Amino acid sequence: MKRPRWLPWLLGLAPLLWAVAVFHQHSYFQFGDWDQYQSFFEAQRRSLVVYGQIPWWNPYHLGGFPGVAHPQFNAFSPFFFPVLLLGTVAGTAGFFVLHAVTAFAGAYLLARRLQHAQSGAFLAALSMLFMLGPLISGGVVNRANASLVPWLLWTFFRTLKDRRWVAGFALVVALIVLEGGFYALVGGGLLLGLIVLLQGRWSCVVKLSALALLGLFLGLGLAAIRLVPTVELYLEFPRRTPELADAAMLDPGAFRHFLDSISALLLSPVTGRRDVLFGEPLFVGVHLGVPLMALLVFGAVCVRHDAVCWCLFGFFLLLVLGRTSPLNLWALLRKLPGLWSLNLPMSMMMVMAIPLGWLLSNSLGRLVNAVFSDAGAASVAAAMVVGLTSLAPLLYQHCRLLESHPRAGLPELAGIRTPFVTSLGNRSAMLPSVLQNRGVLFAYEEVIRERLESRWREGRPAAEGEPGYRGEYFLENTGSVNPRDFTPNHLVFDLDLDLADVLMVNQNHASGWKARFAGRPIEVRNRRGLLSVAVPAGTGTLELSYRPDSATTGAWISAACVLACLVLGSSRLKGLWGTLRLAADLSSVERMLAAARYPAFTDEGR
Amino acid sequence: MIRRTAVSTTLIYVLCGVVVFLWRERSLAAEYDDRLEHGQRLLSRARPELSRSIFRALARDFGSRDDLDRRIRAAQTLVEVTKHLNERRPAEALRILESIPESELSDAVTWWYLSQVHGLLGHLELAAEALRRAREMDPTEPWAGAKETR
Predict the structure, then answer these.
(1) Best mutation site among A258, A261, A286, A293 for testing chain B: the one with the most B CBs within 10 Å?
(2) Model confidence, pTM
(3) Domains and CATH numbers, chain B
């Protein structure tokens, strides 16, 4: 039966309706991680908009740390655009909405690619929106980037037909990295890896893996401008997650609460909450609702038809449940090289939603097909009704998602203090300080804080009002000095010294800082944990700039990979790809995942 | 004529719905028990001498789930407050207590904590008033025990 062409566009209204439901009264929430991420957003926005600089250095938190390199910064990502356009508070809502639309569209297109009918694909796309609830409730901005994982798969499946799509695959990898989506990349990689493995032919496994790795490395190269500084930051501040270090991989005792924890994850009526339950922090309350969950269980009755999808869903379910599962796959994952610092299993929830969506879609197809014997309008209408009735509770639940969160007012921007001042601040309310151009010394930050604070034993930046605070910059012997320019990445002082002196800047020392005095390079040293420059006697301009070498190296690698992508994606190179044609039929992967053919429920597929 | 497959499939789906509903109902009880237990563990780590009496007050009269949920939330807030008190940051503790909506301040435990924080900050009148409210709401044992520990 032919479907109207406008139907997908109509279905596309779903994420927009959802966005209205969630953000009809957006505000500055002092709840969960909202304040942390909004203050990070504001630090980046100020750097870009107020100072016209890329936020390589962030002076606003913990006395200063590398900005772009920080995994929770995302100024290079296109998803940051709403923050630039609308300001931090409204922009954060825009950021989530953009991710919701991306997740919805990606999951829909992916399901269609795998020959699911429109209503089934709609259900698969909705399941991504369900997963966004807990993330938004907690303000966990940097887990929303899993919205790109369906696109990762979609571009990969396109690559199977036309190798030039490897450039598109690389672009999605790059976007995930620019977003700081390391969990999403690991999750997406695992999902793709399992799909490749489960298709069963070893000759294909090798070839498909080679294709995926080519795209992966190309994507990592594209994002090198951000990735290389991040690697440098992690090498300097290795992350520790001691609470998970001793988690056992097998825990038969967890059987006792296994079903309860699945229920808490998918069925709990407390929508969108992060809670410690059964020994693991869980994003409780996706709240799929009884009808959808029944559809999933109904699918389990006919498990043999969807064995691959069930394997994929089961794997990610166990992964997300972490220690609440008798088989702790998360502990196993953390044993892999480079992944030991992953610490929140629930971060993979949106990846789990992809196979979940396929299962729901297949169950819907099976149900409709059994009830309606022919492919008439009634069967299509019934499938659409199920899809739309799943949307209604989602909208209703998410209308109330942010209702109980404490809201706070923001300072009048007319009161912004210039120049920059480091304050003690409030780790639970950092955004007002950053808006006022004030740093928060004891900031809430969980990637480098522990290591940084241990370094502070030798000395640390002082906050305004603390004993020993001598201002944001001073000459050790002479005293005060006035800067000509004092911006996050660039400080300029005109000096006229009778005797040699030491310029101190009240920010953490970092290796990327460089200085020039009277045009000549001069060393930036670590003195009591602070940035310091020993300046000789004489007159001249002292310039301090934060320009990490890793950023320059990364920029060159990125530029080279952009060229490589253009070449690989070029239509002129079709002949070259032809010579590299893989002998095996790579579309077997697509066939394996394609929805079962139900007579009353199929259409043109893609 | 209704097909046999249609009827049996619909019945299976409805049966799945019933199973899910029963599963959820059973799991909710376990979920709330675990939350209560977790809150208790947290509190006992923070202030072992108070945990038993506070939780007796928290767990009393939790007929409805909503009420228990509110109490658990209050307990988690109090854990935060306790942490700040232990680390000698009464101003931060007060900020948290003041952020609790009026509707959730109907708990004697919270009023008692408020009195402790005001006491630490030297707001003696406010401390006395908060203690009076706590006793008014719940004149029983926890407050007598709590007073001794001060």
Answers:
(1) A293
(2) 0.85
(3) 32-149 (1.25.40.10)
